[in-house]
Amino acid sequence: MDFTLSTELIELRETCRDFVQRELRPLEVEVEMAEGRLAPDKRKELEAKIKAMGLHASSLPRAIGGTELSWEAQVVLQEECGSVTNALGWLFWAPAIVLRHASPDQIERYVRPAALGTRVACYAVTEENAGSDPSKLATTAVRDGDDWVIEGEKWHVTSGDVADFVVIQCATDPEVGDGNTLFIVDLDAPGVEAIEHPKYSHHLIDGHPKYAFRKVRIPDANRFSEVGGGLSISKEWFLHERTMIAARCLGAARRLIEDATEFAQNRVQFGEPISEYQLTQQKLADSVTELWAARLMTFATARAMDEAQSDEDLKRVHSKAAMAKLYATEMANRVADRAVQIFGGRGYMRENVAERFYRELRVERIWEGSSEIQRVIIAYSLYKRGVEGLIL
Ligand SMILES: Cc1cc2nc3c(=O)[nH]c(=O)nc-3n(C[C@H](O)[C@H](O)[C@H](O)COP(=O)(O)OP(=O)(O)OC[C@H]3O[C@@H](n4cnc5c(N)ncnc54)[C@H](O)[C@@H]3O)c2cc1C
C-alpha cells in the first residue's frame, strides 16, 4: 500500500501547519492560564482567516457551504489541528458530517449558516444514565399534532456554550425503527436551559454544559432523521469523529515527540544531554514507532472510506475506524506520559505542552466511544469477518 501524499495534500498540510504554528501556537499558554477563554474578537479574526483559506466545514458538500475535502484530506487537516493544545485547532470549524442529511429547509436555516460560520451547532446524545449505550435514552420526543414536545436532560454537550442550535437524540416510539429520532432545536427556544457549566481536567476553548429541555415544542419541520432512524445517523457521526480523533492524536503525538526530543538534546545532566541516556532513547524510540503505526492505520482508514462502494465496505471501515481510534488515542496518551517524564519538573507545569496534552488527551480514550467500547466493536467485527476482513 502506497502512503505517499499527493502534491495537493502536501500543500494542504504545509498551509495548515504554517497557520497553526504562526497563529495558534502563540496563544496556547495565554488561553490555558485563562482556563480556556479566548477573546471573542480574536476568535472571529482567526475564523475569518481560516475561511479565507477555504479550510472550514471540510466534511460538508460544497453545495451546502462546505469545502468538501476527501477523508484523506480531512485527516491531513485534522492532524495539524491536533498539534496545538487547548483545542485551538477547533477554530477550523467542522460541523457534524451528518448535517448533510438535513432537509432543504433545514439546510437554509441551519446547515449552510453553520458551514459558513454564522451559526454554531452542537450534538447531544449523552445523558446521566445513557453514555456508552445511547440506545436507552430518558429524553423523549412525543408527537403532538404538527409538533413534537421534547423533555429531558443532556450531559457534556461539547460547544454547547458557543452553539446556537443542537442536534438532539431523543427516545421515540420503541416499536418504530431503532426507537431514536434526531431533532434540531434552537438553544434560545422556550424551555431550553443550560443548567450547569461543569469544569473538566482540560481547558479547551469550548465548554461542555449540561442542558435541560423542559416541554420544548418544535415543529415537525425540525425533525432531522426519520422517526426511528436516529441511531444510524449518530453512528455515521461516530465513524467520522473516531477517524478525526485518531488524526488529531497523530498531530499531538508528533508535536510531543518533536518538543521532547529537542529538550532531551539540550538538557544536560551528569555532564551529558539526557538524549544520550538509553532510558530516554527508549521513550523516544517507542513513541515515534507507535506514532508511525497509528499514522498508517489512520490514513488507511480514511482511504478505505474514500474508496468505499458498498454497505459491506462501510461496515469494514467502521471496524478500521474503531481500531485507529483505539490505537491512536492510547498511543498519544502513552507518548504524553513519556514526554512529561522527559521534561521532568517542567513537564508538570501548565505552561509546558506535555503537561497540557497529558490532561487534554485523556478524554480521547473516553468520548465518541471509550477504548473499551472500541474493543467490543472490534471483537464482534472479528467474529463476523475474520482477521483478514478487518485488516485487509
Ligand atoms: C469532555 C467531554 C465531552 C463530551 N462531549 C459530548 C458531546 O458533545 N455530545 C455527547 O452526546 N456526548 C459527549 N460526551 C459524552 C461521552 O461520549 C461519554 O462520556 C462516553 O460515551 C462514555 O459514556 P459515560 O461517560 O456515560 O460512561 P459509561 O458509559 O458509564 O462508562 C463507564 C465505564 O464503563 C465502561 N463500559 C461501559 N460499557 C462497557 C462494556 N460494554 N464493556 C466494557 N466496558 C464498558 C466504559 O468504557 C467506561 O470505562 C462528552 C464527554 C466528555 C467527558
Briefly characterize the structure.
With 392 residues, the protein is an alpha+beta fold. Helix content is 48%, strand content 13%. The N and C termini lie close together (10 Å).
- Strand adjacency order, main sheet: 2-3-7-6
CATH level-3 fold name of the largest domain: Butyryl-CoA Dehydrogenase, subunit A, domain 3
**CATH architecture classification name of the largest domain:** Up-down Bundle
Structurally, the number of domains stands at 3
Number of distinct helices? 10
Characterize the biggest β-sheet. 4 strands, antiparallel
What is the H-and-E element order?
Answer: HHHHHEEEEEEEHEEHHHH
Approximately how much beta-strand content do the residues carry? 5-15%
Q: Which radius of gyration do the C-alpha atoms yield?
A: 21 Å
Q: Which ligands appear in the coordinates?
A: flavin-adenine dinucleotide
The coarse silhouette is globular
List keywords for this structure.
globular, 4-stranded antiparallel β-sheet, alpha+beta, 3 domains, Butyryl-CoA Dehydrogenase, subunit A, domain 3, binds flavin-adenine dinucleotide, 9 strands, Butyryl-Coa Dehydrogenase, subunit A, domain 1, 392 residues
Task: Give the topology, please.
Blueprint: H1 7-24, H2 28-33, H3 40-52, H4 71-81, H5 104-116, E1 121-124, E2 140-144, E3 147-154, E4 165-171, E5 180-186, E6 192-196, E7 210-219, H6 230-266, E8 268-269, E9 272-273, H7 278-307, H8 311-343, H9 353-360, H10 371-391
Helix pairs in contact: 1-4, 4-6, 4-7, 6-7, 6-8, 7-8, 8-9, 8-10
The structure holds flavin-adenine dinucleotide.
